[in-house]
Amino acid sequence: MAFACIFVPDFPVEAIVRADPELRDHPVAVLEGKPPLEKVVSVNEEARHEGVHSGMTKLQAELCESVTLRDRSELQESAAHRALLDCALSFSPQVEDVAPDAVLLDLSGLEKLFGTVPKIAWKISQCASAMGLQTNVAVAGTLEAAILAARGFSGTTVVPAGKEAECLGGLRIELLFADESDPEKTEEVLQTFERWGVCRLRELAALPEVELSERLGQWGIELQRRSRGLSHRAFVTSDSPLIFEEVLELEYPLVLLEPLAFALNRMLEQLCARLQARALAAQELHLELMLENGCEYSSSEQSGGVFKRTIHLPIPLLDPKTFLKLLQLDLKAHPAGAPVTKIILRVEPAKPRAAQNGLFQPSSPEPEKLELTLARISEIVGEARAGSPELLNTHRREAFEMKHFTPSAAKNGNGPTPREFVTALRIFRPPLVVRVSHQNGRPSHIASGRRDQIFGDVLWAAGPWRSSGDWWERDAWMRDEWDIALQAQTGLALYRLVHDVVGGTWMLEGSYD
Amino acid sequence: MSSFPCNTGDVPVFPAQFQDLAQKRASVLRHIARSERLAEVRPASRLEVHPKPEMLTTGISEIDAMTGGIPRGCLSELYGPASSGKTSVLLATISAATRRDETCVLVDASDSFDPASGQAAGIDFGKLLWVRCGDFGKSTYVVRRTSSAYDCKANDQQLTTKHNNKNRFQNNNEHQLEQVLKTTDLILQSGGFGVVALDLAGIPEKSVQRIPLASWFRFQRAVEHTKTVLLVISEFRCAESCAALILKFGGKSSARCPTLVSPSFEEWVSPDQISASPAHTQILEKMRVETELVRSRLERKPAQSVKAGFTTRAIRVG
Hints:
The structure holds 2 protein chains of 2 kinds. Chain A is of the alpha+beta class. Helices cover 30% and strands 31% of the residues of chain A. Chain A contains 14 helices and 22 strands. The longest helix of chain A is centred in the middle third of the chain and has 21 residues, at 257-277. Chain A starts with a strand and ends with a strand. By secondary structure, chain B is α/β, with parallel strands linked by helices. Chain B folds into 2 domains: 1-49, no CATH class; 55-250, Rossmann fold, CATH 3.40.50.300. In chain B, β4, α4 and β5 (128-132) form a beta-alpha-beta unit. The radius of gyration of chain B is 28 Å and the shape is elongated. The relative contact order of chain B is 0.16. Chains A and B meet through α14, β14, β16, β19 and β20 of A and α3, α4, β5, β7 and α5 of B.
């Protein structure tokens, strides 16, 4: 049985750098606390070389001009931790959430899938790197050995079975207290070990057990077992919620769409990498933009300085470029109206689409291309002007609504064949208001001032047919319909003439063609 | 014998000593053979044979018998005046395509598609993308549902301001056509559609004729070598030489259109004969459609014009 531990060193810094890859290989220090008492809580290796270390005040850290100072972001750390879990779950379903910066995997039975243990460790490291995290990966036969090796050694480490104590002996004793919740007790024990001259794990492991238990109690024995790489507990699988969210806090407010798109692209790539690791796709995109305080613009999508947009996808997709284009088109059509200070992007996961086209089925447009095309068409003709019509269950004329176009499933040509071909009606939108002269109770002459100058004597008329409805509602309607024939330049033209009984208006509703 | 200067593209110079006509002829031929322009001429043995395109049935047997159907991968044009039946044929074609599970697009320039007519024609709306052009914001019209059901208040429906209406109308038409062209470009680039129909009926001839021929060529090239049918309907010819199939609707017989049947008559009559009858005894039951094949690049040009006629049933009747 082998266990792997994925550990992210300098986790607060790594969470910041993951959201802002330009800071990679630059000295970065993370501050926490209320101003003016901010203190450095985490630094990366480059900042340590510059002389910045944890515990320094902000003023002290600012003396090093090359070091980039950032405030700690819990949201970004949360997103980074979820990315770490997604990476682990892409290899094994048995994952334990040890700490915000460390996860454990049970590698049992994975050799046939991923190869040898060193290869698995290397692939885990590559996967985490693809998600923007620089990690230490250690594989050992026990939980504690894996955790200590990941915390103590950089890169990928494989601890041979039975040699845990030997491999871990050179590590510093402070690693044993990385997950301790009581800092005072930890400080006291460390001082005790320092007085004894115990600095390395091998020195703690070599201490006599009886004398150690007399001075430190059962806890001391437990520490000694751990220093030898022996496990003191069982592996507990954690349930990882399916939350795919990325957060980016901006250094300065963004006004233009282009730099915003650049940031969104990065976040979408990370989200898609996480989804792919979990064999999932995206069904919905939720975008929240925190706007600058005191903004003058307001819109229905804004509430409390937060601008929200949601994009529903007809089928689960996993293409960051498509998502970016859809977001760009949507933001172009619905601008935020104020500078953006923070971006939160969340994705609703769904199982990927599994469609198999038949050899004899007609081709249909690709869903990814179609979605983009529809978004672009909506930009040209307006929102809700492109889609599938759906007739409503009413006799009222023009009662239909536009639905988002999603090609329906093939019916294998089983639709009924009409026996006769119907005469189509071309609707005038809006209906053409006309003046009607009557003779013997039927329309005799039509005059209008718009569109094709439709006017003339009515050569033939059929009707009226009365229809009405919604008499129990406020907007009750009643109309008389006539089919009339007018003489046009090119021959007879048939129209539908409607008399709105309630309003008294005469209008041409359409022409038969 | 000295060689004469021979420069590609230049006329060869014959020195005075060449007297033999055959020698002169041979030298000219050698010059032509070395010419770069000859390389552009493809020999007949290497000419591509364009296969006959696959035909799509319109669902109307009379038209299918006349034309063989609508060709795939080509631009086809149906034109005719109002009430000539072209929209009915369009809906029948789309209906036939959706019944075959093909995805269709209707780019409606004047937003005049009637979903009720489409449903009666048998169109599967789950397979139809309807693009409604012509929305210019709220300034165009407002349909307010009041206690009188529909109180249509159009900004440009005042009969006294005809001149302003005319200018606004022209700009609206150009805007509509711009939307149509842009949308069609996007749809053809996306690909995968069985039928792409451009409904330009209702757009004045002046505006339709302004569509540059290059646009039609571009559309025709976009559907070439695909299975997409590009269908254009309008009241006037617009695609010209780009259309592989052109059907004309209406014509001399339109004076008899519509032919009507009233309950008291058993045979086709013209409106003149029954205009005296009360209106409530009349019903628009059927409409006769006359169509003529103007051009078909797919078959040898007929010596005489080929015509077909059929009837369509009004939705209101049974």
